[in-house]
From TrEMBL:
It comes from the Bacteria. Belongs to the MoeA family. It comes from Novosphingobium rhizovicinum. Its EC number is 2.10.1.1. PROSITE patterns: MOCF_BIOSYNTHESIS_2 (PS01079). It holds the Pfam family MoCF_biosynth. This is Molybdopterin molybdenumtransferase. Its cofactor is Mg(2+).
C-alpha cells in the first residue's frame, strides 16, 4: 500500500525541509541580480551624508524667510558652499547640493525675483520651511540594516546596496540543475516528429522556468523509457544540486523513474500530492560526497509538469538560493465567469486575469499547452469547493508566463 497523496502545504514543507543552503560566495554587484542576500546588509555610510536641497533655488537662514537677500555664493551638487549664512544672505543652491551651515530653508527659484546679486520673494516661502530639505540620514544611517538576509536582489535592492557603500554582496552559490525528460514517444526535434511521436517540450519548458532564477541549468533527453537509458542519464547528474525529471512518474508499466532513481542510490522522500494537475510528483534525495542532491520527479503531462515546477521546483531553487520567502503567494480576485463544483483534489485551473476579473481557460486538460500559454494565473480551487458564481472571490497565483499580451 502507498501513503495517500500529501496535502500541498505539507508536501512543500517536506521538500523545503530537505534544503541545505548552498555555500556563501561574495559576488560583484553587477552579477548579483536575482540572487538572494545570504546575510543581513548594513549600511557602510549615511545617506544623505548631510542635509541636502531637494530643489533648485536659494538657501536662507533660520528666521529669515521674508527677504530680501543678497546672494553670497553657490552650493552645487558635488561643490558645497564653504561659509555660513548671516541674516539677509542667501546661497544659490541646486537639487542634491549640500545645505550651507545654518541654512534652514530652500525657496524654489520659481518663487524668487532676482536682480544681479539681490533676490526677493515673488511667491510664497515654503511651508513648513524645511519642505525642500532632505535631512541627513533620511534614507538610512551608518550601520543600519538596509536589507535582511534572504532578500531578493532586484534592481532597486542593488541600487540600495551600492548607495549603502557595497561593491560586493554575500549570496549563495548558484544551484546546478539538471533537467531531463523521458518517454519513448518523445521526439527531440519538433521539425522531425513522426506520427506516433510527440515533440519533447517539457525539458525546454522546465529549463526555461529554472533559468528565470540565477541557476546553472543543463538539459539531457529525451531519455527512452528503459532502466539502462535512465541509468546512463542519471550517471551525468553527479554534480547537480537538483535533478528535475519529467515523465514516468505514474503507475504505468513504463513509468520507471522511481526504480531508476532507487537504482542510482536515491532515497524516496515522498510520492504523490493531492493536487490536480500534478498528483504523481516524486521527491527523493541522494547523499553524494557529503552533499545532498534533491530529485524532483515531475509528471509528464505538460501542464502537470508546469504546475508542479511552479509549486515545487521554483520554490526549491529559491530556497537553495537562500530566499526568505521561497513559496509563491496567492492573492484574491473576483471571478469573471462561474466555476463548476470541484472534485476531491485541490485544483489549479489555468486562467486569464485581465487585472479586473479572472476567467478559467476553456480547456482544463493537463495536456493542453495552448490553454496554459494563454493563461497568466492559476486559480486555486479547494478540494470539494461548491460551484461559484461570477463575481465571487477566488484566489489566484500569478504565472510569469506572458499569457496576455
Ligand atoms: N492508472 C493511472 N494512470 C494515471 C494516473 C493514475 O493515478 N493512475 N495518473 C495520471 C496523472 S494524474 C498523470 S499527471 C500522468 C503522469 O504520468 P507520468 O508522469 O508517468 O507521465 P507519462 O506517462 O510519461 O506522460 C504523460 C503524458 O505526457 C506526455 N509527455 C511526457 N513527457 C513529455 C515531454 N517531455 N514533452 C511533452 N509531452 C510529454 C506524454 O506523451 C503523455 O501524453 O499519469 C496519469 N495516468
Ligand atoms: O494530476 Mo495529472 O498531473 O491529472 O495530469
Amino acid at each position: 500500500m502507498h501513503e495517500p497523496p500529501l496535502p500541498l502545504e505539507e508536501a512543500q514543507a517536506r521538500l523545503l525541509a530537505l534544503v541545505e543552503p548552498l555555500p556563501i560566495e561574495r559576488v560583484d554587484i553587477d552579477g548579483a541580480l536575482g540572487r538572494y542576500l545570504a546575510e543581513p546588509l548594513r549600511a557602510r555610510r549615511t545617506q544623505p551624508p548631510a542635509a541636502l536641497s531637494a530643489m533648485d533655488g536659494y538657501a536662507v537662514a533660520e528666521d529669515d524667510f521674508a527677504g530680501p537677500w543678497r546672494v553670497v555664493g553657490e552650493s552645487a551638487a558635488g561643490h558645497p558652499f564653504a561659509g555660513s549664512l548671516a541674516r539677509g544672505e542667501a546661497v544659490r543652491i541646486s537639487t542634491g547640493a549640500r545645505l550651507p551651515a545654518n541654512a534652514a530653508c530652500v525657496i524654489v527659484q520659481e518663487d524668487i525675483a532676482r536682480a544681479d546679486d539681490h533676490i526677493s520673494l515673488s511667491g510664497e516661502p515654503p511651508s513648513p520651511p524645511h519642505k525642500h530639505i532632505r535631512p541627513c540620514g533620511l534614507d538610512f544611517h551608518m550601520d543600519e540594516q538596509v536589507l535582511p538576509a534572504g532578500a531578493r536582489l532586484g534592481p532597486a535592492q542593488l541600487a540600495l546596496a551600492i548607495s549603502a557603500g557595497h561593491r560586493h554582496l554575500p549570496v549563495r552559490r548558484a544551484p546546478r540543475v539538471l533537467v531531463m525528460d523521458s518517454g519513448d514517444e518523445l521526439a527531440a526535434d519538433p521539425e522531425n516528429c513522426r506520427e506516433h511521436q510527440v515533440p519533447a517540450s517539457n525539458g525546454a519548458m522546465l529549463a526555461a522556468m529554472a533559468r528565470g532564477l540565477p541557476c546553472e541549468v543543463q538539459r539531457i533527453g529525451p531519455v527512452p523509457d528503459a532502466m539502462d537509458a535512465l541509468a546512463e542519464a542519471l550517471a551525468q547528474a553527479d554534480d547537480a544540486d537538483v535533478i528535475v525529471t519529467s515523465g514516468g512518474a505514474s503507475v504505468g508499466d513504463h513509468d520507471l523513474v522511481k526504480p531508476a532513481l532507487e537504482a542510482w542510490g536515491a532515497e524516496l522522500g515522498f510520492w504523490r500530492v493531492a493536487i490536480k494537475p500534478g498528483k504523481p510528483l516524486i521527491v527523493a534525495t541522494r547523499e553524494k560526497s557529503g552533499r545532498r542532491q534533491i530529485v524532483l520527479g515531475l509528471p509528464g503531462n505538460p501542464v502537470s509538469s508546469h504546475v508542479t515546477a511552479y509549486l515545487f521546483m521554483l520554490p526549491l531553487l529559491r530556497a537553495l538560493l537562500g530566499a526568505a520567502h521561497p513559496l509563491p503567494q496567492a492573492f484574491p480576485v473576483r471571478l469573471g465567469a462561474p466555476l463548476p463544483a470541484n472534485g476531491g483534489r485541490r485544483t489549479f485551473m489555468r486562467a486569464i486575469w485581465d487585472f479586473d476579473t479572472v476567467s478559467p481557460a476553456a480547456v482544463q486538460d493537463s495536456s493542453a499547452l495552448a490553454a496554459l500559454a494563454a493563461s497568466n494565473v492559476l486559480i486555486d480551487r479547494p478540494a470539494n469547493a461548491p460551484a461559484a458564481e461570477a463575481g465571487a472571490q477566488a484566489h489566484v497565483f500569478w504565472l510569469e508566463n506572458g499569457g496576455i499580451a
